[in-house]
């Protein structure tokens, strides 16, 4: 039915023509008649200040500024309406998760891939470093504890976080410097009335959080601190050895409402790691530190003009050293010290002259510097002139780099008719230490096809310069290469089925038109000194591609049962010469299922999570049999194990990965506060999942005999904890 208020004079056809998709890499957008009801809004206005007057114009403007226009958007702790994944705070905290870790709690979203050791994840095939992570408006670099163990935990306690927004691809112009995706984290706003304290203890950490108000309710403060001891959990899992990791982090926030239209907030984030580990095959001693401080100013100059300003300073430092016995006769050694400092100012503006037009614009300037002091000796075994030679290769670097990054963006958002919202923007970026300059146009469109069905599209250009602290000096690289460049194209269709469920299907392609060659390890096992491994190779790729289709459905929480399920079909490759090389974490098929039972009024939740996916690629390996002579001229046969070539990566795969986790949580109301407890079991059924294979060779009767044994990932791992809020 056509409403009298509709401006279009076309016949009542809801789906005449919406788009023309992927014509020689360009997204052309056409639109026709569709119903205007059901326009989804997000839950958060970017500024903390709120309009003083609720006029008709301001109501329309607010809806336009907060429309979720990007495909692949997932709102977690704070729900984002109109997306297929919207989890409340209680639900996300009660999901199975190892180490009460923020990043691990979201690893089962569609399009994400991760291993058991690390908290970091790959989004739609991208490198973990291609994820833009921000906390309360500030970009975080290397936001992980235990970097030597594949970034085992994040530096943010899940209890300190109020909301998370994940955009898996096709993000809009205000985000720059990353090829893959955007993870925006929002900390819990401090109370502005009476004080509140939370004390918690678990198998993996101790934590305390306290908050309160001041200035007669105009200000608030909060401090959350955590001390971790993951070695206890490993001992419970029967993996007791000399591993002794210690980590700690503190997040502090103070807010002040200057007036009804202006709000200030000061934040500080501190994290520290120390690790000692020694065994027969080697040792490591390391320390890592992260320091961030920033101030935000949210301002509403007029009901139609708002801004956010962020001024920041930060510092990171790494120190690690040790040795490893790569071959039996020689030990390889490493001494690695590096640091980086950064600061900057960022400003984002929203101007809404009408209820059909919003202009987003702003920019960021960030000076940075980094210093490297690296020295290592690497052992290799070769056959030279019929003799086995064990040699050491020195790698040394003393490098200091500095410069700045500047980014500017402009993105008008239009609503020409009630059922269509379009944003076409661009950003300009400059990085002085690498000499990169780029222009990145982007387009996003949302079409409301019916009150229950929404179509979203995105296309754009994305660039990522090499970070000033990310030189691979451990591989002999001491100069920056050109920035990586990619093109995103995404289409997503979302439909709500009454009060029962909401489903989404998305197709995406990220075509990397240029990438710098880089060093990688072919094996998938955990290596504390990856640069020393004999599987370390150069990946001379200059192009790449990630594509796939994702299907997800989530129950709307009617009754005592919550659930979500997804399936993804994907592929991610790098182009080396004329060969498409599969990336190590490629998962052609991925299944995720989450379910929670929470009887009304019972005060407890039982959650379970299942995941299964295609096995990651297995390292190619060759065995070379050679006849050699020792110092006395005695003849013998030796076998060299050679990993590679890199172009054979993906020809073989590990077995399918599968795991089930479970978590039981219980809340008890006390006369003073609340008591919460949990019992979590990682890998409930102790499923055996290989991460790599080791090969043992011998020559018997002139025949080569190869014995293969599997390096297994984590098995059954229990944890428990209790928290008292008062």
What does this protein structure show overall?
It is built from three helices and 40 strands. Mean pLDDT is 86; it is low at 1-62 and 77-86. The termini are far apart. The chain has one domain (19-725): Maltoporin, Chain A. The chain has 726 residues and is mainly beta. The radius of gyration is 27 Å and the shape is globular. The chain has a 22-stranded antiparallel barrel. A hairpin with a 2-residue loop joins strand 1 (19-23) and strand 2 (26-29).
Number of DSSP strand runs:
40
Instruction: Specify the CATH homologous superfamily.
Output: TonB-dependent receptor, beta-barrel domain
Q: Would you give the CATH topology?
A: Maltoporin, Chain A
CATH architecture: Beta Barrel
Alpha carbon gyration radius: 27 Å
CATH class: Mainly Beta
Question: What fraction of the residues are assigned to beta strands by DSSP?
Answer: over 45%
What does the average pLDDT come to?
Answer: 86
Distance between the termini: 56 Å
Largest sheet: 22 strands, antiparallel, barrel
Identify the overall geometry: globular
């Amino acid at each position: 039915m056509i409403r009298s208020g509709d401006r279009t004079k076309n016949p009542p056809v809801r789906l005449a023509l919406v788009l023309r998709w992927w014509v020689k890499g360009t997204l052309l957008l056409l639109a026709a008649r569709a119903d205007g009801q059901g326009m989804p809004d997000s839950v958060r206005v970017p500024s903390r200040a709120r309009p003083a007057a609720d006029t008709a114009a301001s109501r329309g403007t607010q809806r336009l500024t907060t429309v979720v226009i990007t495909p692949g958007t997932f709102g977690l702790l704070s729900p984002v309406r109109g997306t297929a994944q919207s989890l409340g705070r209680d639900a996300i905290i009660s999901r199975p998760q190892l180490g009460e870790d923020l990043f691990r709690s979201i690893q089962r979203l569609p399009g994400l891939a991760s291993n058991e050791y690390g908290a970091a994840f790959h989004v739609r095939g991208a490198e973990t470093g291609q994820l833009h992570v921000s906390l309360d408006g500030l970009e975080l670099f290397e936001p992980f504890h235990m970097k030597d163990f594949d970034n085992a935990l994040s530096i943010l306690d899940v209890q300190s976080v109020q909301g998370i927004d994940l955009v898996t691809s096709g993000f809009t112009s205000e985000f720059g410097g990353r090829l893959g995706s955007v993870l925006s984290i929002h900390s819990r706003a401090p109370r502005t009335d009476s004080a509140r304290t939370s004390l918690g203890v678990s198998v993996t950490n101790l934590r305390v959080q306290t908050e309160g108000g001041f200035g007669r309710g105009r200000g608030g403060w909060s401090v959350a601190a955590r001390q971790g001891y993951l070695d206890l959990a490993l001992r419970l899992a029967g993996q007791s050895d000399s591993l002794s990791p210690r980590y700690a982090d503190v997040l502090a926030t103070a807010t002040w409402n200057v007036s009804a239209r202006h709000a200030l907030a000061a934040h500080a984030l501190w994290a520290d790691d120390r690790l000692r580990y020694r065994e027969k095959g080697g040792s490591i001693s390391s320390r890592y530190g992260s320091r961030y401080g920033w101030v935000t100013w949210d301002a509403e100059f007029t009901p139609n003009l708002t801004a956010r300003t962020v001024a920041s300073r930060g510092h990171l430092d790494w120190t690690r050293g040790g040795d490893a016995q790569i071959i039996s006769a020689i030990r390889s050694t490493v001494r690695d010290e590096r640091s980086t400092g950064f600061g900057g100012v960022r400003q984002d503006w929203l101007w809404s002259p009408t209820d059909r037009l919003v202009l987003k614009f702003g920019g960021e300037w960030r000076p940075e510097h980094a210093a490297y002091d690296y020295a290592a000796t690497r052992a290799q075994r070769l056959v030279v002139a019929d003799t086995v030679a064990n040699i050491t290769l020195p790698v040394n670097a003393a490098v200091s780099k500095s410069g700045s990054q500047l980014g500017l963006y402009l993105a008008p958002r239009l609503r020409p008719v009630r059922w269509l919202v379009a944003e076409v923007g661009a950003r300009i970026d400059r990085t002085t230490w690498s000499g990169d300059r780029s222009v990145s146009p982007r387009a996003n469109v949302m079409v409301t096809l019916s009150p229950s069905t929404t179509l979203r599209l995105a296309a754009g250009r994305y660039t990522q310069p090499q970070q000033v602290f990310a030189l691979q000096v451990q591989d002999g690289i001491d100069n920056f290469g050109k920035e990586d460049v990619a093109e995103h194209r995404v289409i997503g269709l979302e439909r709500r089925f009454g009060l029962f469920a909401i489903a989404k299907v998305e197709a995406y392609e990220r075509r990397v038109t240029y990438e710098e060659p880089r060093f990688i390890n072919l094996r998938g096992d955990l290596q504390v000194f990856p640069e020393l491994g004999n599987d370390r190779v150069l990946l001379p790729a200059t192009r790449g591609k990630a594509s796939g289709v994702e299907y997800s459905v989530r129950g709307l929480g009617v009754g005592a049962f919550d659930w979500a399920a997804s399936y993804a079909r994907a592929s991610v490759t790098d182009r080396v010469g004329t060969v498409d090389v599969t990336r190590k974490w490629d998962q052609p098929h991925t299944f995720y299922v989450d379910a929670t039972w929470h009887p009304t009024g019972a005060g407890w939740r039982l959650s379970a999570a299942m995941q299964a996916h295609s096995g990651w690629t297995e390292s190619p390996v060759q065995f070379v049999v050679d006849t050699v002579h020792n110092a006395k001229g005695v003849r013998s046969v030796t076998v060299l194990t050679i990993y590679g070539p890199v172009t054979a990566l993906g020809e073989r795969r590990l077995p399918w990965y599968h795991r089930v986790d479970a978590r039981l949580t219980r809340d008890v109301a006390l006369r003073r506060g609340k008591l919460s407890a949990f019992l979590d079991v990682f890998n409930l059924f102790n499923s055996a999942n290989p991460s790599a294979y080791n090969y043992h060779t011998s020559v018997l009767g002139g025949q080569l005999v190869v014995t293969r044994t599997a390096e297994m990932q984590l098995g059954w791992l229990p944890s428990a904890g209790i928290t008292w809020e008062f």
